[in-house]
Amino acid sequence: MGAELNGHGIEFDPVESNPQSPLKGPSHRDSDDILKDVKTKDRKSSVHVLLTVLVVVSMFAVSAAAALYMAKENEVNKRLAVERDLRDLEIEKNNVAGKLEELKILNSVLENDVVQGKKNYRAILEQFDTAQEQKRELIQVVEQRVETITALKSRITGEERENKRLNQKLERTLKENEDVRLQLEQIRVGKEALENKIIELSRTHNSSRGVELDRIVVEDAADTTAQSSKQAEISQKTPGPNKINIVTLPPPAKVEGQVLVVNKEFDFVVVNIGEKDGIKESEVLEVYRGTKLLGRVQVERIYDTMSSAVILKEFTKDEILEGDIVKLI
Known about the structure:
Layout: E1 3-4, E2 11-12, H1 29-208, H2 221-237, E3 256-263, E4 268-271, E5 284-289, E6 292-302, E7 307-312, E8 325-328
Antiparallel strand pairs: 1-2, 3-4, 3-8, 4-7, 5-6, 5-8, 6-7
């Protein structure tokens, strides 16, 4: 049938399409007409078929074009979408790049902060160690202070107890001193009354003596032996009732007296030796009963012929009675 129509798949015969082909002669005119009719019919059918085919092809072409258009439109849309996505991605990329740059800057800052933080951390650790050491030292100091305070409190408590005890003792002592003062005052009053009474008795005793007692002369032993014969001669030559008998005695103590009064309440005695006998205040006399030493007394007040003396208890073992002998030490 010839070549196909370009682009539509329809065959084309150049000989059939030319009615005046030189290959056909006049003897074949009828057959040619028949053939022509047939061919005309065939041509019409072919045209019809061709038209149908063209329509179908056109429809296919339109469909294909539509499909192609749709595909192209879809492709364009996809391309536009891709471009939009690319633009969005570019924008996002730029944003991410900006954020990344910011993150890099922030990371650099953070790294610097980390480095500085490490330095600060080490410094803080050093400060913490120093603080811990200072804390331990302070704890030791506080413990020592607490121990000192505890010891001081204990000492203060002990001193308070001691102070309380001393205050109580002081109060008792003051009370005892007051009692002693009152007793001493009573003793003083009693002593003064007794001394006045003794003085009065002494005056009465001196005034009542009509004749002076024989005087006891204390001489040395050598003088006594030498004068004994002379005194005997004098006594023989002296007549009459007024004869004076001179008696020579062994040498006694220098000063000797007798206990006249014993006051047991106030612990003092009165003796019959005084200022005329050479007695002085604060001198100590020994008290005898026979040859037995009873104790000692200390002269407190002195009168002409008598004295008052306090009994020294630390040197007195036995009770002193009236009539006991006193001797100056």
